[in-house]
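does this look right to u?? tryptophan version
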Amino acid sequence: MKRMVSGIKPTGGLTLGNYIGAIKNFIDFQDEYELFVFIADLHALTTKQDRLELRKRIKDITALYIACGLDPEKTTIYIQSEIAAHSQLSYLLECHTYMGELNRMTQYKDKTGKNMTESITSSLFTYPVLMAADIILYDADFVPVGDDQKQHVELTRNIAQRFNQRHGDFFIVPEPVIPKQGARIMDLQNPLKKMSKSDDSDKGSILLLDDLNRIRNKIKSSMTDSDSEVRFDQENKPGISNLMTIYSTLASITYKEIQDKYIDKGYGVFKSDLAEIVVDAIRPIQERYNEIVKSKELDDILDAGRDKASKIAYKKIMKANNKLGLGRKR
Ligand code: AMP
Ligand code: TRP
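got this back:
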């Protein structure tokens, strides 16, 4: 069975973008692949976090993974920081990564902008290397992610290849798996910007734990262009195109079918229907979340996940140390 690894940072509430771009696909893949899904808490520390808030979010993401349909019998679910080998391997990989490569990462450039101030942490710069470690530590064949992570997986491939060239075949060079549709869900208020959980303008992001009426309102008041034709045109009609992508992925119908259905109906009817489709997708997730978030079951799942993942990770990091001539011969 081929192996897949992916993770999500607990930096804010999970969004509909996380669901459509990542989690929904994890669920589809879990029968076909050996799936490892973790909570990337170390990655959250690249920006300032409140410790109690972070703890809560780690539990929330775990509960949401399960509530969305990840089955702990099939999928290994764990917390990144509970497995020391992630950080250990990250350092070894830093020794195989060039400053120039990290400088080219667009996410880093977007986050720091032009003002390279004192307050930007070095971990924000090296974070793609930790992500590479997260992946190749488990010899993953595939990495299911949204579009924004593609460049990081490309970097992971380069680092793995470089390591293999220098030291002989050791890591599997993984491939990104990006959904054909929904790989970049956009902000509802600014459809030129990615929907993001760590965003202040909360009206643009639908959170999986938002009140259902609030979700309806966010969709109904989303930004669309001034004509009223429901037609997919990414370039000229980014707002409605984004809503159509959400509709299409959640209702499993094509753009053409949506277009035909709403011909002459206008945006109002379309948005009302979409609001119900989104609410119908999210309601059962929230119900299940509420049942399990405080249960002991979550800790049991995380314990089992940690035990399984750490065995694999420990073996690999020991071999990597040995390969590089660290410590004593074993
Ligand atoms: P993050 O929230 O940055 O930890 O992202 C976790 C996963 O969700 C990654 O695979 C991202 O590519 C994916 N993701 C995040 N935001 C979006 C979005 N707006 N549309 C599609 N996928 C997303
Ligand atoms: N960097 C990813 C993000 O911000 C999260 C992540 C961390 C990840 N490690 C990973 C995703 C490994 C896939 C595989 O979205």
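The chain has a mean pLDDT of 95. idk if thats expected tbh
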